[in-house]
Amino acid sequence: MQADADGVSYIVELREVSKQFGETLALDHVTLRIRDGEFFSMLGPSGCGKTTSLRLMAGFDEPDAGEIWIGGKRQAAVPAHRRPVNTVFQSYALFPHMTVFENVAFGLEMAHVAREAIRRRVGEALEMVQLPGLESRRPRQLSGGQQQRVALARALVNHPQVLLLDEPLGALDLKLRKAMQLELKALQERVGITFVYVTHDQEEALTMSDRIGVMNGGRLLQVGAPDEIYENPAAEFVADFIGETNFIPVTVVGREGELVDLEVDEGVRVRALDESGLAPGDTATLAIRPERMLFESGPPQPGWNRVSGVVEDVVYTGAFTSVLVRGPHDLPITVRRPNENFQERGKLHRGDTVGLAWRQEAGSLFTGRRTEKGAG
To answer: Among 38, 109, 132, 168, which one has the highest count of C-beta atoms within 10 angstroms of its own C-beta?
Structure first.
């Protein structure tokens, strides 16, 4: 197992891995290191390469270029059944004619494990996923959440070094899905093995993960803790895909150290932090989360930006109110405030002119002028 200079051990490594299917480049020189014992999520839209990455780790496919290492060993030509991993799929793939016990025991029986050891290990696995007493039931007699737990028990009973999960909650209804998110995270912490979890659901990844890898177009765009990914997106796609973001096209008109002066509209200027070296005349996109914006009257306070806009709609969503504003250049801007301390909600109406304010450090700058919402 590989460790870095800080002593962090990495149990899974992809080194410059590429994979092509016909004319489609599914993975484009992806390098990734996953820590031993962490819950790592691979997040991105359909076709971004996350499931391909998982299949390459599992040994279901082989890379066209690059290397895959698991547990400190290169996996070139190692077949799927000999790799120290197990996979849980969205479909669960349970045998309908077998009992819960038989489903969980299947892999152990194929490995010719002694009968008494099978009984003990199956019992431990079912205890782990909170399903004791259901050994004699068949899959059709179980709820969706129980079937998912059986699939997890079957994967964990072989004591893999890494558990690969390909959107395993996708078939569940929303309420059960949220409950299972917390159960999965708690399970991972109890067993202490590495979970590599594939999902397109941003909230799911933010809820469960120690770290997240965001993918798009076969490339790995950013790896980091959930708060790092959300608060400091490394690419415009990351800011757009995770959560809601306001994007404002700007032109650089001046610079003072790490602070750049930006023109939003003629005579409307704001400031932002920039470490990329943007120079006067460069175009860029300023991204600001809706919850980072406030309503403000009067002149801007030191360290804050302010622009004006016209209220288009006020939407109450329970815990929050979203105010849709038409800003400079007719840009749509959303402000989201928690209702517990949002006293302006009842005072705002369509057609009202409002001032929108945010701290200079609250925005993220991306090189180039944004032409359309989304990427890839």
So the answer is: 168
- Can you list the pairs that 135-142 forms with residues at least 24 positions away whose Cβ atoms lie under 8 Å? 135/99, 135/100, 135/101, 136/99, 136/100, 136/101, 137/99, 137/100, 138/96, 138/97, 138/98, 138/99, 138/100, 139/92, 139/94, 139/95, 139/96, 139/98, 139/100, 139/103, 140/96, 142/100
Q: What is the pTM of this model?
A: 0.88
Compute the distance between CA of residue 228 and CA of residue 221 in angstroms, rounded to an integer. Answer: 13
pLDDT in tens, 289-341: 999 999 987 777 888 999 999 999 999 888 899 999 999 888 999 999 998 87
Amino acid at 142: L
C-alpha to C-alpha distance for 253 and 79, rounded to whole angstroms: 58
Query: Which whole number is the average pLDDT over 184-189?
Result: 90
Sequential DSSP letters for 48-105: SSHHHHHHHHHTSS--SEEEEEETTEE-TT--GGGSSEEEEETT----TTS-HHHHHH
> What pLDDT shows up at residue 372?
46
pLDDT at 199 over 50: yes
Any idea which residue has 């009973």 for tokens?
157
